Amino acid sequence: MYDFKYQQANSQDEAVSAQSSAEDGSFLAGGMTLIPTLKQRLAQPSDLVDLSAINDLVGVSEEGDSVTIGSMTTHASVASSEIVNSKIPALAALAGNIGDPQVRNRGTIGGSIANNDPAADYPAGCVALNATIITNTRKISADDFFTGLFETALEDGELITAVTFPIPDRAAYAKFPNPASRYAIVGVMVAQTGGETRAAVTGASDSGVFRSTDIENALGDTLDASAAKAVSISSDGLNNDIHASSEYRAHLVSIMASRAATAAG
Fold first, then answer.
1. Which of 48, 61, 232, 256 yields a CA-CA distance of 20 to 30 A from 19?
2. Tell me, what CATH number does 19's domain have?
């Protein structure tokens, strides 16, 4: 690692102030991506601003027809939350299958979506469920938040404080995981909310999470799993690496969509 200054913030204002006043400051959530990046000397922030002591960034609440999750809530807490399991069980299942127990007990929902790893699970959940990402300055729809490979709509110094999910009529997530990292080689979240069917794909594209209109049209109002399985997905623009070819990932998109639709139905 390179040398850096460590600061632990006790409030949102303190965190934003510390990050903005640093030469090149970074927020530290669970550290599941940032710490390995520092160890590999792929990043050299001047300051790390630790968010773990900010209590109002942690927790799950239900209000009306939505569930809100604080950005520093761990994957394990989302997976075990009575509210999430009752209102959006697909999201609880998604969180419960991220990485391994160590990752689930340290990693946070805010850290995951801020990093926007192209194989992360939460971006698919956010897009399919039409979530709203809340920051210290504004609200951003999931459709507008994820902008590309490791890229988001966050501006410098902007801090994710919570994510609000509309409660779907039905939803499910299916992924084909890398057996070592448990990252999604391909993952598909299918959700139906207020008559709208959405399908979000992670792990497949070299530009990150995306909606598949072909899958959505095939699923229709009934979440037709067999129709989704029959969709032929183009391999153009899909990842091609040692784990899976672009053609195999294209095949997996329709298979995972079909499995998710079956689980949701």
1. 61
2. 3.30.43.10
Query: What pTM value is reported for the model?
Result: 0.96
Mean pLDDT split into 10-residue runs, the chain, 265 residues: 91 97 95 91 94 98 97 98 98 97 97 96 98 98 96 96 98 96 96 97 96 98 98 96 97 98 96
Give yes or no: residues 61 and 162 share one domain: yes
CATH of the domain at 186: 3.30.390.50
Closest CA to 30 of 60, 14, 52, 2: 52
By residue range, what is the domain housing residue 33?
Answer: 5-50
Q: What is the dihedral of CA 163, 75, 228, 116, to 10 degrees?
A: 60
Q: How many domains does the chain have?
A: 3
Amino acid residing at 171: A
